[in-house]
Amino acid sequence: MTSDAYLGKRAPASRPRATGARRALPLIAFIARHRVLSALVALAILPWLTPYQALAVNILIFGLYAMGFNLIFGYAGMLSFGHAALFGLGAYGCGIPIAKFGVPWFLAIPCGIAVAGVASVIIGWFAIRSRGIYFAMITLALSQVVYYSAYQWTSMTGGEDGLRGVTVPRISLFGLELNMLNPTVKYYVLFAMAAVAIWLFSRILASPFGATLEAIRENEKRALACGYDVARTRWLAFILSGLFSGFAGTLYAIHLSVVPIETLHYFNSATILMMTLLGGMGTFFGGFVGAFVYIMLQDVVTVITVHWQLVVGTLFVVLILFFPRGIWGSLLNWVKP
Amino acid sequence: MDRFDAKTPLKTPPTAALSRRGLLKGAAFGGAALIAAPAFLRSARAQSGPIKIGFPVPLSGPYSTEAQDQVRCAQIAIAQFNDKGGLNGRMAELLVRDDKLDPGEAATRALELIESDKVNFLCGSLSASVQLSVNQVAKQRGVIYNSISQSDSINQVSDFSKYTFHEALNPHMTAGAVARYAFPKFGKKVAFLIADYAYGHEMERGFKRAGKEFGIEDVVEIKHPLGQADFSTFFPRIQAARPNVLVVCNFGRDQLNLVKQATDYGLKQQMKIVFPVLLFSQRLAGGAGPFEGVIGGANYYWGLESEYASAKRLNDAYRAKHNNAVPSDYGALGFAGVYALLEGAKKAGGTDPDAVIAALETLKYDAYKGEQTYRKCDHQAVQSVLVVESKPQAEVKGPNDVFKIVATQPAGDQFLRSCQELGHS
Amino acid sequence: MTLDLLLLQAFTGVALGSIFVLVALGLSLIFGLLTIVNFAHSQFFMVGAYVGVAVMAYTGNFWLALVIVPLVVGAIGMVCERFLIRPLYGRGIDYPLLLTFGLGLILLELVRIIAGTEGFPFSAPAELTGAVDLGIFFFPKYRLFLIGVTALILLALWVFLEKTPYGLIIRAGARDQEIVQVLGVDVSRVWLVVFGIGTGLAALAGVLAAPIRGVFPEMGVPVLVEAFVVTVVGGMGSLLGAVIAGLLVGITVSMTSLFYPQMTTLSMFLLMAVVLVFRPRGLFGRAGVMD
């Protein structure tokens, strides 16, 4: 499953690579077959790979977010520039109940997901009738409406100062008292929650809905002729994508104990696009690989130079020119028999 | 084309930057760690070895000029402390991080500094949202944070904690000082143009409260979005209201764009333009022409050196290190913030948070502009506020000669909101 | 609220709108003819202002800057097209969009490295400073000058595209690349020139906007939004659409600042959302382009 399908008939035919690469095949095949298990194993050891745990949590959250974004961008082939609204609403939808009303975390998280879900139903309804760049622009415009609404509603959201006080210092689970101020504990608690979402995502891809989505991306007219409801499938994909993004947002609020207004800004939409592209659009692991590389790289480069954007920009250009399938996508293509 | 030299290479202490890059030692994911006592983090913070101060500031992005100056000045405070032998041989160390002017990034960096680098103190920030988010992270984990950018919220009980200190001016005292100078002098019909975020609103509130004493008349009030590139569409209403004074509560690039465009539209001939804070760096970027005659508040101007030995000491150290340039106002806050923390540690005889808090609450220190104290209830630095006017090109005598100090509001509790009002019992 | 005020507000909106048209032109042109969404547009705008600062520092002549800046930056744009954009033709709209996004970051950081982060003062020439009396109100000369310059650039562009043989080739190439190639025209050279003109226009807008907005590395940030809104509202690829949309956005912003000033930025996005909901291709967008 690589990105070339997304490019439609204009894409250069991918040529099978030979020999050496084949040796990696069994491993890749194993990973592809047990994708949920593989993802969970990789994420379980993640805190040992990052310089500090807070970064691992960010990778986990943005990986989840990128996974959700990939559903609409990679699998459905629609470039959304408004996912910041869905991620951010998830964060506010979870953070406000905790900070302002003292709601416990296990109710606040579903609340955040629900808010993001409602928003994706509405934004999706307006947006799916547009295509290509217009789809990108209308999602951008509507997400900016969300941004400014949150910005103005200072009493609830904290406005430009951001929402503070999303404190979840400890979580009691089956008689076990988990100290969320301990970074390692916090990582594995959030990891356990993310694991459920990853499993669910895999199930969705494997379902008839996932197949329909792919059929539409490959050839919309044919899918339409076959009797698929293209508009409804797209809408559903947008909503599902919004739910996953919103869930990532709720974890972000709990992780940082603040919700910055920047979570709703379109820069955030651009960031998640970059991560997804970096990892590989339309691939199961693309989102996590992209989040890992992007966040690690930025963290390391930022310490070395203030001109980290130069490195990110160059990486981007090189990637588009030479590895348009992204890191994971290129790897898959490389070992393809 | 006068610009001060900000290209002096930024010196992040290499040890700080690189030592933390080692892979995490396998922090055991065992039951014992899971059920850790609340004291888990504090016990890990070193009471011996170097005194580490985490310093998250926006090194990249639109305020990088100011942020890099904050780092330069903070380094001076560290060097002076170490040159005098530190604290019983414990040297200070600055761990600089780029917060990218983003509260999320800043919170992540604060977590890194606290959890991984085990810093003793945090100091820094250049925007209200970033300082509030760093404060949130720090206070939950019992780490003292000294904020060096403006905010009224951080004094209030909902954001404040005993670990929270605020070295910068707050909008209430800044706006009050400028208002008390400007309104009696230039007239009572006042127009407000306010950047639509906490900084703008808090400054506006400060101006209006001080304005009550003089019976000002609020003739028009316009809120503009943050990051406005073109202000021209707001001018017709302002001009139609015929105010004596135009109070513009915005910051940074917005400020620069506004004075340029207001000059074009001839607003300066009709009214006096007043800012709560007039930035040294923005004045250098905008040039003398657009800023001519504009009034604003400041925490510091290098010209204070004729009056205060401490200002001279800071300026001389800066000049010697940075090619004869002078510290900027926001830069100097970096010095004062770190200086105060280290003085507090000295007085407490160590870095135990509770001991340092107690020491800071009673500390009298002269960092860079005369004596300051931290008020006990909200840990706000009680300090003087300068009112400066931007000089016309004809009076400018050198690349750094940009302002004249037209008034000084002395340090005093009476210029702060009362502890009761802030919600402290 | 007097009639004078409304009139002045509307006129201010038109003047602002002409700046929007100016900053959107380069984007719209490249989009319409190459179907490339140039996300680096705003950084070419910014680079234009910086090159303007350099020209002013050496010659002190604003008018000379207006000539040199588009040539220099247009040449930079052509280099970018030749080595970065050209390999991506025919690979959909996402890839050029994302590549130019990265290119924009590179340009921004390079300027920060070369020219510092704090910005430069930049003033209009003396003959264009000050305000003129328009009967019922005073208006800055420089803004009137910008309205004129924008009209002039539009006219020149229209003549070039509609009345010259080059324009004919460009338009034909935009419609059917293969036929033009069969006729013996080197299409890639046409694309090169168009991209150069587009980036040159962005740069010219940058140096023209500098006396109003100042020169600093982030000066392009609001421009990207402005240019996109104008181009999308007008319909991607329509020059006439860009002009009408620019004025429409200018007046919308101006009237919003009279009645609900903190919503001025949002009003642009709202306008775009409303237009796209009712006309999914913008006001003058052609069917089949960019879908």
Question: What can you see in these coordinates?
Answer:
The complex is a heterotrimer of chains A (337), B (425) and C (291). By secondary structure, chain A is mainly alpha-helical. Chain A has one domain (33-272). Chain A has helices at 25-33, 35-45, 53-75, 83-101, 105-127, 132-152, 154-157, 183-206, 208-218, 220-225, 230-256, 266-279, 286-304, 308-322, 326-335, and strands at 163-164, 170-173, 176-179, 258-259. In chain A, helix 12 (266-279) crosses helix 13 (286-304). Chain B has helices spanning 14-19, 31-34, 40-44, 64-83, 103-116, 128-140, 171-186, 198-212, 235-241, 253-264, 267-270, 280-286, 288-291, 309-321, 329-348, 353-362; strands spanning 51-57, 92-98, 121-124, 144-147, 164-166, 189-195, 217-224, 245-249, 272-277, 295-298, 364-365, 372-374, 381-382, 385-390, 403-409. In chain B, helix 4 runs parallel beside helix 15 and helix 7 packs across helix 8. Chain B is globular and about 65 Å long. The model of chain B is unreliable at 1-43 (pLDDT under 50). Helices cover 74% and strands 2% of the residues of chain C. Chain C has eleven helices and two strands, in the order H-H-H-H-E-E-H-H-H-H-H-H-H. The mean pLDDT of chain C is 87. Chains in contact: A-B, A-C, B-C. At the B-C interface, helix 4, strand 7, helix 9, helix 10 and helix 12 of B face helix 1, helix 8, helix 9, helix 10 and helix 11 of C.
